[in-house]
């Protein structure tokens, strides 16, 4: 008798999930799957979604949810397979196209991602996220007008989407429309004030308009959000350089390089700061590292300048030559080489370099031409 009761109880327990499945619709199992996924119970969520599909094998929304879940727990191939199955049963399901767009954009093809998001918008034009993602893709392709069109639409649908305002700012920057760019970035920060990158972008915009004090305030806000944000330190250093605060610039560049030792521009800028502080040996060392990472005309000119100030003219000349070899339109390279050649009693070639520097727009060469070459150039450069 006891054995018989035990068997009956076991049978009831085995049949319980089937009985529960019969009492719920596929849509209810989908909702249960979403709830379990949100609670972090991923295996149970997957079981609920598979139950929804067993009840209705054409229930496309359950396939899409399984696709999202599989992307986290199984892999992209499985996820894409589920999403494609969803579209086989409902070719108008915008969510499935958007999911495939997200995967394509991150791992496969930006162009394919644009196509997928375009399909998603065609079937459901009321979802701000679709416009945001397509707008970001346009921005990454440097098609800023298209990006603004989509991001404006996203903001019209959901003005509280901070990322939409952020990328609107970036798109305006790409179109060189700085004032609307600043307005968009400020709106993004009003919605999400903890973004160090956005404060830094605002600072760089202010710096571009020669608003150094305003820029420094934005960089302070950025570093309050993230003290280890290298780009904010580097950007602040550049403004400090422009304001003639070279010691403050060196301090920020020290921090930048501690956080990102491979940043060539930081080595180059610190070399220039040391040059202005007359720390010539340090300037040379920093320029050496910058050149080793990526040779630039500016780094070679700075190194030549430091050597020039140490009266090591024979060593300074090859660096000035290297600067011009890298960029034949770099006026500072010709000026530096002219100064070195004057010290080496190479007056004729020095005057040639001064004329070239002046023609390239470096007005500083005019006085030197009059002093050393006995000639007064035209009042305006050729270029």
In brief:
This protein has helices at about 1-25, 25-40, 40-55, 60-75, 75-90, 95-110, 110-125, 130-140, 145-155, 160-175, 180-190, 195-210, 210-225, 230-240, 245-260, 265-275, 280-295, 295-310, 315-325, 330-345, 345-360, 365-375. It is an all-alpha fold and about 375 residues long.
Task: Please provide a written account of the structure.
The structure is a single chain. The chain is mostly helical and 383 residues long. Among the domains are: 194-243, no CATH class; 329-383, no CATH class. Helices cover 79% and strands 0% of the residues. The chain contains 22 helices and no strands. The chain has helices at 2-23, 26-38, 42-55, 60-73, 76-89, 94-108, 110-123, 128-140, 144-157, 162-174, 178-191, 196-208, 212-225, 230-242, 246-259, 264-276, 280-293, 297-309, 313-326, 331-343, 347-359, 364-373. The radius of gyration is 32 Å and the shape is elongated. The model is unreliable at 1-21 (pLDDT under 50).
